[in-house]
Amino acid sequence: MPDSFGKRLKHAWSAFNNREPTYTGFEDLGPSSSSRPDRIPRLRGNERSISSAIYNKIAIDVASSKIRHVRTDQNGSFKNEIKSDLNSCLSLEANIDQTGRAFIQDVVLSMFDEGCVAIVPVDTTGDPVLSGNFDIQTMRTGKVIEWYPRHVRLNVYNDRTGKREDIVLAKKSVAIIENPLYAVMNAPNSTLTRLINKLNLLDAIDTQSGSGKLDLVIQLPYVIKTAARKQQAEERRKDIEDQLTGSKYGIAYTDGTERITQLNRPVENNLMKQIEYLTSMLYSQLGLTEAIFDGTADEEALLNYFNRTIEPILSAIADGMTRIFITKTARTQGQIIKAFKDPFKYVPVSELATMVDGFTRNAVLSSNEFRSVIEFPPSEEPDANKLSNKNLNQPTNQIANNQKIANNQKITKQTKMLRKEQ
Fold it and tell me: Is 217 helix (H, G, I), strand (E, B) or coil?
């Protein structure tokens, strides 16, 4: 029965017109910031170099894969997904500021920038230090500041105070994930570090070239060795500067015996060649190609990229959280943190029809399971959930049973509709 007009008017609410009458806009809501204070600033000038694009691309691809709290059978095969607070953090909401996907992306970006990252359980149902029997309700990324034998000092954002705070936690209660590509990205003499240094040099040269200086050398018609001649040359230089700055179009005049040479001409060096060489080397070490960035990579290049780059990062995150957040007793019961990659995400539509026929004909996936892949609602046909070859003729008695089931379902629906009308 629809609500009456009076009831709807009583419970109506607007964010602009129905605020608390005692709220004046001057209550203490905590510290404010024009930017997100929970975001860790990147180091080493990464925001100005090619590393920013590489980090972001890999982090997005890692976050696009599902990481879930699941239960496996005795052979380690996936059995079902566990409805827990930890699984909700990974799939829906990690904290008040981040969704599960944004949190994983933050983990990867922080791990690339620092070399390792700490996944900190902020709100739990129990004390992680006293007992391992607890569930994680919220989690955040933390920066490792100091290392102790069995503890770490972390810099973590506190959403209660709105500030980043330093805390000391035991290693057994914090999942510390080390970058599996540390030797390529974070080592002191790694390929990416050398590339960043070269790019910073190139930025410095470009800044100097665009500073607006003329870099002129004036050759005067006399020898400058005495103090009087040096003072005369200095006066001549200031005179030309005053002419250039005071002129509307920047025009100055000189004596016929004076000669002016401009120095800010492009000087040939091998800096750009070194940057191109290091970039190609970095791409090969990370399993990247230009086609992956512009979206034109073929199946073989994508498979190589996922196996060499994405899979090690996903495994490092999943294994690190399983080791710390899943107790030994739960692991013996088959509980783990598992990463899933959608095998049909990059399959063209022209090839998907052939795959559907092959998987359903060989009873690997049912029709409804494939309908969920292409984002179609499940079918209500009885055979849609069965693992059977639809191309083979079914026995007569099986067809009759299927028809009987369909008729019973139809009668049941009609009965429910009649009851609702009554």
Answer: strand
Range of the domain at 226: 193-273
The answer to whether the beta carbons of residues 56 and 63 sit under 8 Å apart is no
242 with 262, same domain? yes
Report d(CA 252, CA 246) in Å as an integer: 9
- Say if residue 70 is in the same domain as residue 167: yes
Backbone phi, psi, residue 157, to 5°:
-80, 130
pLDDT in tens, 44-87: 554 456 788 889 999 999 999 999 999 998 888 888 999 999 99
53 and 106 both lie in a single domain: yes
Query: Any idea what the Cα angle at residue 198 is, between residues 195 and 203, rounded to 5°?
Result: 125
The residue written with tokens 């290693």 in the block is 171
pTM above 0.90, yes or no: no
170-194 CB burial, b ≥16 within 10 A, e <16:
eeebbbbbebbbeebbbeeebbbbb
For the stretch 262-311, pLDDT in tens is 665 554 567 888 888 888 899 889 888 888 888 888 888 888 899 999 99
Q: What is the dihedral of CA 61, 63, 68, 74, to 10 degrees?
A: 30
